Amino acid sequence: MVLASKLPLPDECIDIIVAYLVDQRQALHALVLSSQKLFQRAAPVLYRSPFQLIENSSRWSQDEKEKRSTALLALLLTSRLPQHDSADPQRPTSTNPVTTVAARPTSPLDIHRYHLLQMQQHQRYQQHQQAMATVDYLRFFTHQYHVNLWRLLALLRTLAYGHYALLLLDDNRSMPDLQTDVSHFLVQYRPQDVKVIGQPIARIPVLLVPHIQELRNLVRLELSEIPYGCKIEPVLEFIRVHDAVHGTLKEIKIKGGEDLNHHLEPTHKQLVRLVQAMRTAEVVDARHWKEAILVLDDIPVDCLRTLILGLADMPPNYISASDYLQRCAYLEELRMPVRDDRLFAWAVLERKKLKLDHRPSLSRSNSAFASVTSTSYAPWISPPSPWQWRQHPFQEWSSLDQPFGLPRMRSLELFGEDRVLMPAVRDAVDAFRESLESLKVMSMATMSKESIYTTAPLSWSWPLSKLSVLDLEGEAALAFEFQALLHCPTLITLRLSLPPYFYSSSEDDQILDELKVKMPQICLATRLLDLELLGKWPVSDELLDKMTRSMTRLTQLDIVSCLGYTIEGVLKLISSLGQLERLAISKWLCAWQPARKHAMRALNPRLDVVEEP
User: Fold this and answer.
1) Is the domain of 349 the same as that of 449?
2) Do residues 423 and 555 both lie within one domain?
3) Which of 28, 151, 305, 474 has most Cβ atoms within 10 angstroms of its Cβ?
4) Which of 594, 606, 546, 600 is nearest to 568 (CA)?
5) What distance in Å separates the CA atoms of residue 442 and residue 458, rounded to the nearest whole number?
6) Is 470 helix (H, G, I), strand (E, B) or coil?
7) How many domains are contained in the chain?
8) Buried b (16+ CB within 10 A) or exposed e, 339-376
9) Contact 79, 61 (CB under 8 A)
10) Would you say which domain of life the source belongs to (predicted)?
11) H helices of 189-334, where?
């Protein structure tokens, strides 16, 4: 192999390549197996948060994910290489049971017992050595997001391998104690390298307080299993002390308390103190904290860059989300429900004041000139943190540090009724057109058709030069005008999901005719890699043929519930798109003729064909 000995690339170039493959597990695994140098650069990325890669996979069922997570936990528990004594490197430590045997006895009976005991311990040690991984994968496990160890440890105990008993899996210990021991084992190995820790709130004082001096690179804290009325003072003290000693905590994720005791003080008044304890909180993830919307005004905005809220409850009338967002000068990522149709009207107005529509775009070539001549353009975007791979690549923005102006919003995920949601989305696309990279809109599903006929189309006539992900669900997908795709030159992922009630009555025939007319315009997205059409979209063989000629870069296609296409159109699509890796189609196409599936694989052996009802 060419790459086996020497790779003719500097480490900096390899790191850039690996940075683009952070979320692609298969590609990272291929790099790990390619050469020793690629292993050294890719393994820390692949194994820094392996449980999350398994959980986020769409290829495996839940049972398969459990099986793989169990095997991964066993690998981590057995990957801690045996250490040697510092005084004598050749002498193994007490992990070798042979070295712990007492002095040789003198009586014949004791000598026989001695040999049996020594042989048994030697066999257990050999099993333990064989089970030990040849690579210390545990030292790469730096992003220890919350993992539910209960089921994994229960499965691991059932394995017929005696050597696991040497690694904390003692059958006599209770499961809560065993979870605590395993969690402590994972944290204490190299606490100075840990960047993310996710644990139940009751374990934080036990696991983290003893290592507070060593956790000098801890960036993110995830708290779960928070019951109503829990004592958060120990966690508050840990955050304050760590912030004063190291000052690295920037992110916090809070999972809301379980509704156990309604008579106690509401949890949201207590949990917001955890966010306020961080002096420079940049990321607040409260998607599983349903009451976070009630304390929106209490979440600090001085350094806030990412705010993720749950989409179940709407903001109450006494909370003005628009006024709050106007104070978030550095916000880059937002996920929240929408109650006000003028949620981003302030941003449109600010854009007009700054006259950004008449300014030349700031590119790499003219950024130095713009940084000198501009006095109010955008707030400062920090350079990449050492533990994060994906950040804004242009450090020239650091010269534009201004305490006013528009935030450079990169990601938006909005949810609400279409009558207020659509105006808010149009304002957001208008205000953040230069920086928006991902847009997800979910309309609240209703059984009324009135909103469909009265909602203005969702479209824009200005370029969204950085938009790479567009995800529209419900009425937002129906209201979307495909002509807007012409203004999205970098779009690589498009997901359109029709309302669940579509085609439930004869009134939908008019909408169906309109969709048939505008569907060919979806081919304006010529640089797509991933296309998902969820729901009963009219997809004909003619449209599939047009896709093969315009969407030449397509690698994933989902047309499961769509109507109008045949197996002939699918086969022609597969033969034309040789780079297609995943195709999800309706199950009935191959249900009675399995030979059709074999024909698909013959056209493209690498193709993963998914059949769904």
Assistant:
1) yes
2) no
3) 474
4) 600
5) 13
6) strand
7) 3
8) bbbebbbbbbebbeebebeeeeebeeeebeebeeebee
9) no
10) Eukaryota
11) 204-207, 233-245, 268-277, 321-327
pTM, entire model = 0.79
Encode pLDDT of 442-501 as tens digits. 988 654 455 444 467 899 999 999 999 999 999 899 899 999 999 999 999 999 998 877
Across 540-563, b (16+ Cβ under 10 Å) vs e yields bbebbeebbeebeebbbbbbbbbe
The verdict on residue 85 lying in a domain is: no
CA distance 423 to 259: 35
Portion of the chain with pLDDT greater than 90, in percent: 38
Q: Are residues 437 and 470 in the same domain?
A: yes
Mean pLDDT for 146-163 is 76
- The span from the CA of 85 to the CA of 135, in Å, is 20
The single-letter code of the amino acid at 537 is: W
The greatest distance separating any two alpha carbons of the chain, rounded to the nearest whole angstrom, comes to 99
Average pLDDT over residues 512-525: 90
458 and 558 share a domain? no
Which amino acid is residue 270, in one-letter code? Answer: Q
Q: What is the DSSP string of 256-296?
A: PPBS--TTSPPTHHHHHHHHHH-TT--EEEETT-TTGGGGG
Boundary of a domain, candidates 9, 24, 46: 46
Structure tokens at 156: 């691991």
Tell me the sheet residues that pair with 286. 309
**Residues 416 and 551 both lie in one domain:** no
**Is residue 418 located within the same domain as residue 449?**
yes
Q: Residues with Cβ < 8 Å from 102, sequence gap 6 or more?
A: none
Task: Confirm if 464 and 429 have CB atoms less than 8 A apart.
Answer: yes
Residue 12 lies in a domain: yes
340 and 463 part of one domain: yes
Q: How many CB atoms lie within 10 A of CB 332?
A: 24
From 175-179, 211-215, 327-331, 470-474, the region with the lowest mean pLDDT = 175-179
Chain segment 398-424, per-residue pLDDT in tens: 444 443 467 889 999 999 988 899 999
Shared-domain flag, residues 482 and 550: no
Measured CA to CA, the distance from residue 134 to residue 80 in angstroms comes to 9
The pLDDT value recorded for residue 365 is 35
pLDDT digits (tens, 9 = 90+) for 250-279: 999 998 765 444 444 556 778 899 999 998
The DSSP output letter for 458 is B
Phi and psi torsions of 551, nearest 5°:
-95, 70
- What whole-number distance in Å separates Cα of residue 222 and Cα of residue 267? 17
Coil, strand or helix: which one is 608? Answer: strand
- Estimate to the nearest angstrom the gap between the alpha carbon of 474 and the chain centroid: 23
Q: How many CB atoms lie within 10 A of CB 247?
A: 11
Distance CA 444, CA 187 (A): 42
* Interior/surface letters 39-72, b for 16+ CB within 10 angstroms, e for the rest: eebbbbbbbbbbbbbbbeeeeeeeeebbebbbeb
Environment class of 4 (CB within 10 Å of its CB; exposed 0-12, middle 13-18, buried 19+): exposed
Alpha-carbon distance values, 156 to 145, 163, 189, 353, 575 (Å): 20, 12, 21, 62, 45
Residue 179 Cα to chain centre, angstroms: 24
Residue 126 domain-assigned (yes or no): no
Q: Does 15 fall in a domain?
A: yes
Rounded Cα distance, 102 and 232, in Å: 49
